[in-house]
C-alpha cells in the first residue's frame, strides 16, 4: 500500500490524507526510521497541492518529532488499508506488477508461495520491486 501511495504521488501529484499519514509513519517511525525532513522535501517537490507550512508541520507532527504525544499511534502499512480496501483495488491500480496476485497476498506479496507468484506473473524480488 505504501508503494502504491508513492506511485500515485509520482503519477498524479496527489494522495489522500490517510495515505499521506501512512507514508509518513512508515518512513519516520513505523519502519524506516528516516528523518521527517526527507519525506517533507519529497512531498513538497511532488504534491500539486503543496503548502510549505502545512506539509512541514504535518511531517513534523506525524513523525512525532514535536507536538504529538501519541507516539504509539502509527498506521500499519498492511492492516490499515486492508480494512478499507480488502481486495487491494488501489494497489492493483498503481502497481500493475501485483495486479494478478490473489487478494490474500496483495498486501503482503512477499508471503505468497512461489507457485502463486509464478501464476500471477510476478516474482517478488525479481520482477517487483525493481
Description:
With 130 residues, this protein is mostly helical. Helices cover 54% and strands 0% of the residues. It is built from 8 helices and no strands. It has helices at 2-12, 17-30, 36-46, 52-62, 79-84, 89-94, 103-106, 114-120. α3 packs antiparallel against α4. The longest helix is centred in the N-terminal third of the chain and has 14 residues, at 17-30. It is elongated and about 45 Å long.
Spell out the blueprint of helices and strands:
Elements: H1 2-12, H2 17-30, H3 36-46, H4 52-62, H5 79-84, H6 89-94, H7 103-106, H8 114-120
Helix pairs in contact: 3-4
Please give a handful of descriptors for the protein shown.
mainly alpha; 0% strand; 130 residues
Structural class: mainly alpha
Radius of gyration: 16 Å
Main sheet: strands, sense, barrel: none
**Could you state the order of secondary-structure elements as H and E?**
HHHHHHHH
Distance between the termini: 16 Å
State which percent range the strand residues make up: under 5%
How many distinct helices? 8
| Mean pLDDT score | 89
The overall strand count is 0
Low-confidence stretches: none
> What general outline do the C-alpha atoms trace?
elongated
* Helical coverage, percent range: 40-55%
In brief:
The protein is mainly alpha-helical and 130 residues long. The chain is built from 8 helices and no strands. The chain has helices at residues 2-12, 17-30, 36-46, 52-62, 79-84, 89-94, 103-106, 114-120.
